[in-house]
Here is the input.
Amino acid sequence: MYRRIVGEGWLLMRIRGIPLRIHPTWFVILFVATWGFERRYRLSLADTASEPTIWSVALATALLLFVSVLLHELGHSLVAIRQGVKVRSITLFLLGGVASVERECSTAIGALLVALAGPAVSLVIGIGLLALVHPVSHHSNLLGEMVTQLGVLNLVLALFNLLPGLPLDGGLVVKALVWQFTGSRRRGLEVANACGRFLSFLAVGLGSVLVLRGAGVGGVWLMLLGWFGLGAARNQGQVLLVQQALRDLRVRDAARRRFRVVEADTTLRQLTQWTPTPASQAPARSADASLQLHGPSGGSPPDWVLVCDRGRWRGVFDEAILQQLPVQRWDTERVANHLQPLDSLPTIAESQPLWQAVRLLEQAPAGRLLMLGPAGLPSGTVERPEVGEAVLQRIGLRLPPQLLATARRLNAYPLGLALPQLTLAMEQSGELDGDGQGRSGTEVSAGRR
Here is the structure.
């Protein structure tokens, strides 16, 4: 399998710079595979080999099987590297192996080649091993049986992975082909995910029938694969929903107002005793009427202090000045004497798609953007918690107030949403071409006055 997930487990070695990791669940399947091979060898070779020998060959077969899985994943990885995609790691775990990559290929043909590389390696290994069965069997029946088992299992590995549905390699083939013929990577992903969901339900159903008929381990294993596939399909469906929400929502849908408005002639003493400026006295803005003034809360950055002079925006006050100047000067020093240009703040237009805000928030030192209305005037602010909340609400999930409060205190996306990574994947795959890109140079840096 070839997946965009972060590898976990213990680092075993590096192969051409690619970390090879072993997940703790791998030892479970290693034991099960060894036990299964031992039972098979005992039935066919009990008269010609001792019990310790059978167990040793069973363990060797299980280990060589996972070497085959590793070669399968290396096939994906090396072709991905040739396509300019960085491979983060290869992880062996309960259900086999998985290659974690930095991003997906930028072209459908490249994605197709990467998807086919793993099954091609397994197919070559399987055919090669089966061609060696006859000469090896003349040397040792036990080794001949082992080579037969490994050859057949590699063919099964190749053919099973070519089943047309995610998260299998065949699903990636379907996605790449639909992408190539329709020009839409998203459409390819939707079709492949639907195929994967169908195959997963089929696997669970067949596994249940086999268990009821006494198939035992085989039926349970098929059900486990089916449940894994259903979980992967559900996760992929959620990713698609989140990405669509990032494209459909506008910046104004996730806005708050984390700035205060003060007059330029305000003294520093008055600033420290600040009370909210009535909306009628602040400069014209296009923010929604529900936006309220907020002071510093928890561990999040303090509110910005924006300065105006008789209805015209003058700049932003750096509150660090209060720590630099002696308290005795606070009565004479004016806010206007310590201004920075308003364009020193990271800004974004309220009409931009929300994914633009996600991208810019990663570059904003305070993790906050100043939202500008149609006239280029400050109308609100955008931070990670509100972006995450807007996305989750769009897909039908409402979070408890306690979780939102924690996210705001940390200025983080709720539930650890990986929105920057999803946005990066959308950009690298070309999904966002023309979606706000042509306007970002003007609207994201809209004029100020």
